[in-house]
Amino acid sequence: GGCGVPRLPLTAPPLSSLLGDREAGEMGLAAVPGRQAAFREGLAAAVQYARAVGCPRLHLVAGRVPLGADRAAVAGEMETTFIENLKYAADLLAQEDMIGLVEPINNRITDPRYFLNTPHQAASILEKVGRPNLKLQLDLFHCQIMDGNLSRNLETYFPLIGHIQIAQVPGRHEPDSPGELNFPYIFELLESLNYTGYVGCEYAPKGDTLEGLGWLRSYWESRGLQHSGTGKAAE
């Protein structure tokens, strides 16, 4: 407690509470009808952890269409639940000066039952929620699989973006591994849009993690930047 960070109670539930009951097949709770109380409990725990480690952004994981349910039949109720939970979360996070993020996850490869799967759906929901401290977590891997059109999507949804994640498609490895995406172009596009947030490396390294960061060193060199090993250079 000497660093001024509040101690966490020993009984605090794990941060994965925002993901729900993984053993029961849950992947998030924010849009799942009937799980509002569990969502609020998980959010409270996540805020405690985020406060302790100085993390200003939390991914509010939407969740899956219930097993056996038809997506179209439950979509309305799930969106209503999602909007109510997001409003609650936004008000709570505003007190902590934190930002809530929603991330579309593709349902073609990664998670067939995930509720939130395109940036268009996310933007529509964020508009209905209407809270400035809720943003879009845009994972370009998922976006490419669902829609492609990355340049236009980045430009269109740029005002909503609070965090960006990257991985090559379809292997979900390093940005310079074989695949569909031209990441040097995408990075320059983000620079031209004056993106100042973080780019999360949401990929599985093909081998050694440090060796796998060669793509970043190459990009720095192509932009005339010196590799300093500091976080500032990575931004």
From TrEMBL:
Record-listed E.C. numbers: 5.3.1.22
InterPro entries from the UniProt entry: HyI-like, Sugar_Epim/Isomerase, Xyl_isomerase-like_sf, Xyl_isomerase-like_TIM-brl
Active-site residues, Swiss-Prot/TrEMBL: 103 (proton donor/acceptor), 202 (proton donor/acceptor)
GO-annotated molecular function: hydroxypyruvate isomerase activity
GO terms classed as biological process: glyoxylate metabolic process
EC primary class: isomerase
Known catalytic reactions: 3-hydroxypyruvate = 2-hydroxy-3-oxopropanoate
Xylose isomerase-like TIM barrel domain: residues covered: 20-218
Pfam families assigned to the protein according to its UniProt record, in alphabetical order: AP_endonuc_2
UniProt-listed Gene3D superfamilies: Divalent-metal-dependent TIM barrel enzymes
Alphabetically ordered keywords of this record: Isomerase
Function (record text): Catalyzes the reversible isomerization between hydroxypyruvate and 2-hydroxy-3-oxopropanoate (also termed tartronate semialdehyde).
Family membership noted in the UniProt record: Belongs to the hyi family.
Protein name listed in UniProt: Putative hydroxypyruvate isomerase
Originating species: Thinocorus orbignyianus
